[in-house]
What does this fold into?
Amino acid sequence: MSDIAIRVDRLSKQYRMCDTRDSHRTLRDTLTHMAWGPIRALRSVAGNKSVSTNGHKSFWALKDVSFQVRRGEVVGVIGPNGAGKSTLLKILSRITEPSQGYVDIAGRVGSLLEVGTGFHPELTGRENTYLNGAILGMKRAEIDSKFDEIVAFAEIEPFIDTPVKHYSSGMYLRLAFAVAAHLEPEILIVDEVLAVGDAAFQKKCLGKMGEVAGQGRTVLFVSHNMGVISNLCRTCVCLERGRVVDSGSTADVIAGYLARTSAEIPNDGFADLRDFPRSKTLADRHAQFDWVRTLNARGEQTGTFLEREPVRVELGLSLTKPVPVLQMACGVTTTDIQADLIMEPSPELHGSFQPGSYKIQFIMDPIYLRGGYYRLTVKLFANGTRQDTAPEALEICVVSRLAPTDLSTYNQRWINGKFRFDYTWGYLVPESAGSSQQRPERQCNSTSDAHV
It folds into this structure.
């Protein structure tokens, strides 16, 4: 039996849109349009868009997409909005027919593409669970054995016999994901519908997907969250404008994607904190943040930095009472659901700070974070009492210094982690028999990532 679970070969999907400009034309306009039709068709052959002779504009949502997924792999699919990710998953789930190419899928497919996909609104949650199981080819006894576990995971037991048309979007999502994940399809296809749920449910779903992957089932997961993709997927496919532009190791694909898109993402490295939502417990504060910004080594305000480039964080704050001791904290967290804290420098400043406006700065030189997105949370204390907090006030992008073409060779020395630094790796040659003198240590120097 082949170990390929999904084989996609030269897959293409073309959609047509009605050209509203042609809805009220005269006979002369129609004849002119027909005469120019062959010429327009020839001009559009080399492009990604075409216009048919019947007055409809067409475009390729996918064009010549090819890749393979092995059994038991967890593969991520990333790319900007409009890249064709959802269209790809709909074809793999047999919801949409391709225009060209083919897909070969070995095994039962469970899909979660959008809230309520595959649910009948008039049926209850219980009835939809059995209906989805039957669609997957499962026997009633198999569904019975999983039913209580599905309901417990979805946390909708009081409403399981209520028609799903009365469910909220969150309830829809909970049940849809529980059914897709628990009915044991060989292949689980998940679009980024998890963004609909709350943070606790998202973590629960991610944990379940990790469990599914650990059982040897195949998972294809679409997300814009690079942290989640990194944690779940060993391999990754990147789509842009309907084509595969990169595939392979998740770290390599993400690094290349960030390098290509960082210049396109508007991030000026500034946040006005004067109207930032504050906790009610800070109503009596006499010190607060006004703004925060980040600057590069050249003093330019920006939110995008190269690896190992110094990052200067400047904080504007206001005092309404004298303060002898000020303490700031700047927490750097990941942008995934867990929002792991990476570092939190907390400088303490002593002096006689009178009422007025101040600018505080601290510099991380160099920054050892690997390429990716990170968020800054700033906190302000006066005389040991918390005065102000701005959670996730600013986002920064760290771009890998490695060009995408260099990543394949660099990957041989790659280790999971958030930091990149130089290291020395040494070893000792065993002492030879009959010799009392130990040979000298040999060392090799390199640069790699490390999990800290």
